[in-house]
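Exercise: predict the fold of this chain.
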Amino acid sequence: MARRLLRPRELSVYHERTRRRGVTPWVYWPARAVLQPFLQIFFWLGRTGREHVPKRGAVIIASNHRSFLDPFVIGCCVPRPMYFMAKEQLFRHPVIGWFLGAMGAFPVRRGASDAESVRTARVLLERGSVLTIFPEGTRVRSGSLARPRRGVGRLVLETGARVVPVAVIGSEHSRKGLRPRPVRVRIRCGPALTFPRVEEPSPHLASEVSARIWPCVELQWEWLGGLPPLRRAAVVGAGSMGTALATMLSRAGLEVQLGCRTSAQSGQLASQGENADYLPGAQLPPGVSVSTVGEIEFAGVDLVVFAVPTDGLAQVVAQVGDRVGRRSAALVVSKGLVEPLGLTPSHYASERLRIRGVACLAGPAHAREMVEVGASVVLASAEADLRRQLSAALGQAGLRVIASDDVVGTELAGAAKNAAALAASAAAHAGMNVAGAAAGAVFSEVHDLARWAGGGSEAFVGLAGAGDLVGTVLAEGSRNRRAGELLGGGVPAAQIRGILGQAAEALDSVPLLAERARRAGVEAPGLAALEALVEGSVAPAEWIESLRSSSAAGARRAA
């Protein structure tokens, strides 16, 4: 008898019970009388906007979902029995399944179309009950809210139920393992929404209704202090990469402001609809507005992209730093080191911007190809929520994103790429063997520096390092490749910027890398020799001869 009672039941049994009986009063009300005071005291439960929950009639509570605790704390805001969906695995044990059903839960198959659950929900709403739905479809334990699914919109249209947007914050920290933790949980209910009843709503109409409901949930979420989604971005720097990233972010659905140095440049881009000087032929999307950096309202943007060379990063950070909101994030795409201390770009920005997080972008991302066919990039940040947000946005724009928490390794791999490309192209006229030796020595020494600074090796052997190096050396339009060719041909470094018309970041970063290696006690003869070439203290022929001599000495030691 006991074995038969403990045997798992078909899910349809729970659905049929909920449709016919609803909650079990002699279980529900005593349990609520105990649980509600406990939840309010143990989790310091803050409840705002309870007056917006209708006391009669069919109501759908549309809420974000952070924890298993959410249905129970939301229930503390509703003065009558509230029903909710729970994953089918919880109903495998008949005793637990019976108790959940008595408390208003019914099973749902997550990740699949579940007509049985939809039918139960419809019956409950037709009866005039309160039903809680989590439109995200699953728990999102950190970061901003996920995108809603269209199921809630369909149910609203089919039943004509009123919708109360609700946000819960803090419940994701309510337990450590299986132990509950006394953390503060807060709930905010917004005014109820109404929509006309439609017998057979189309998928498009259901999606539109879900899209109208979800911003109201986000409004409650942000009022509670939750992390906002990325809606608006400002790109500082209207060069080729800045223009490309503005285009890609617009494709991801963000409102983008592209900041130019001068009003003349912004006027030209706005009138022509393209950046004829740096990215000719690539039309700016309608979602990109062009202005000067000084005209951008940085306090109202969610993401600031610094798409300027490393030698200009300090100036723009100083220019906009006090205007950026604390809840904004920054994405730095500069490759190299920042004067005078030789800090990595994201390190420099994070020390001077009072914002929630900084990320960097690396990898073989040629601006024109990025806009036309996409690219593979590495996104690195110490903030997991920011990595997830930016990876999703860039992925939606058409980029293939590898997320990493190794910020030091990723940025120094990018600096190593530039320095190695400069060395290879400067030595190329002396032969491929010498060019390979020059690039290999510099790349290896910067890797040693990264390891000393706490970075990993993965960035160097992956897209941020080796992958980007190959792309730079092969790209005929690469600034660092062309700078190396000019440098190896005897053109002083001071004149190369004027010839290129753009910055070649390797020329600025090589001396800083060499100096940082000396301060760290990292042996870097290849960097020191390249530094001497850049600074003009050795001639190209003398530098080439030193490369051949060091290669020969290395071969003798190996023998």
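Check your answer against the key: The domain at 410-558 is CATH 1.10.1040.10 (N-(1-d-carboxylethyl)-l-norvaline Dehydrogenase; domain 2).
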